[in-house]
Structure formats: C-alpha cells, structure tokens
Sequence to fold (297 residues):
Amino acid sequence: MAIGIMASSGGGVRKNVGTMGKAFHVGHGVRAGIYAAFLAQDGFAVDPDIIEGADGGGGEGHQRFGLADTFSGIGRYRLNLMVDQLGEELEIGRNTTMVRMHPGSTAPSSTVDGMIALAKKHSLSADDVDEIIAEMTPQCVAIAPYAEPADEHRAKFCIPYSLAVAFIDRDVRLAQYEVERIAANDVRALMRRIKVEQPHDLKHHRGQWGENGINWGESRLTIKLKDGRILKKATPYSKGWPEDPVTWEDVRAKYFECTAGILSHAQAAEAVDMISNLERVDRIADLVDALSTRRTM
Fold:
C-alpha cells in the first residue's frame, strides 16, 4: 500500500484509478503546487530551465532530463503548444469545459444520460429488458474498464454497473455509488444483460482526446425488450459538456449534494452566494473561509 501511495504521490498513475488514489492524485497535486509556490517565495532554488532538456555535451546526463523529456520521452512533445496564442484567448472563454454531473467516469456519462432518457421516455422496468448493448469508443472503455463494481471506487469506472443503476434509478448521483446500492440484487441482475461493444466505426477514436475533433464519449444504445421491440439512441455527449451546457442552478444543486455532511447548508449557501457575486467580494480570504471545514471566523 505504501508503494502504491508513493506511486500516486509522484504524479499519479492510472493503475490507481478505481481506488482512493484517484482523488488523491488531484488533491496531492494541488497541495504540491501550493507548497512549491511557498518554497519558491522563500528562495528555494532548483534548475531555472526545468521544462526543456539539453544534452550539454553529456548525452544522457542529468541535464538531458527536464520535465518534458522525463515524462514524454526525449523529443516526443510539442512545447510550442504551451505558448501558441498565449495571452490572446483564455481556454475557459471558449466553452470547452466539461462539468461532470455524474460522479462516475467522465467518458461514459453520455451513455448514462442516454440510458436514463430511454428508460424515462418508454417507462421501462428491468423486467421488460432482454438485452442492452452499449456501443462505445475504445477510449471510453479504456477509462472505465472494470467489469465488476468491486467497491464504491471501482463502481465509478464500471460501465455495466453505471448503466444498470442509471436504468433502474433514473439518476446517477453519489447515492448510486454507495456500497448498499452497488450490492443490490436488482442492479446486479440487470448488469448481466448489458454488453459493452467497440464497433469498427467508433475505433477511429483512438489517440489523445481533445485533438482532431475526437469525441471520446460518442456511443450508441440498443435496448432489446422481451416483447420484441428494439429501442435505439445515439448518445454523442452528456449534459454538462459544451454541446449541452449546464445552468447555474444545475451547478448549485450539485455543490449542495457534494457538500452535504461536510459543510452545513448555511455555510454552503454562503459560499455559493459569494461565488455568484465574485466581483463584489472584498477579500478572497472570506471565500476561502466559507469553503473550509475549519472556519476561522
């Protein structure tokens, strides 16, 4: 376990996705960034040219392995992307941000939305279903690869579970990833009737997501019913993606769900009010305090 935590401490490894390490990757990265800023402020000095590598006449010496060469491989990177149009346009202003409305893996959320929509539209129950086929991209399957929801961590990256609970509950929130719900017989029974496939026409979605128009969440659902009907739905994107942006009320409701049991409702409401009127907040410290579980005021 110590070795596994160490692996996530160094920068995060995908093998820890589906464990407590997934959240640790993000939190520890933020903590390390803040700590680095404090050290730099106090005069802690390292190589000032840390991004690029240089052979310096020494070939494979220490100076060869800057940030880019170490993590991408020697020469296998495009540093120009760091500065292209720098200062001209902010990414956040291009409406490319994804807001995750489901707590599970990002990529299958489009299919989850499609499953909920079909189940609601046709008033379906699990007893109506003979088979469900989810056609998905290789990226989607790779990022949510677990066939069994062994616990609440792996369940978030288990496509059959997420689709089954979405069909039955008509919703996928934090409650759907509680241990009791994961073990429930109704969800487990429907999981056995769900097949995940990677059809040929979706296999071109390999490569780094976000480039060249790749849509990692593109998928198709087919529900075969016991009465002979076949229902189909293409699900190219999820609510919260740029194609179907969320409202302020959507984000507000999600914040209250995520902070329940951590912050009081009054404190959460205070933070939401400050964020919605950010331009009029006199001290950012007041907002930080409203977001903290250890209030200073």
Summary: The chain has a mean pLDDT of 90. The two ends are 38 Å apart (CA to CA). The chain has three domains: 2-94, 109-235, 248-290.
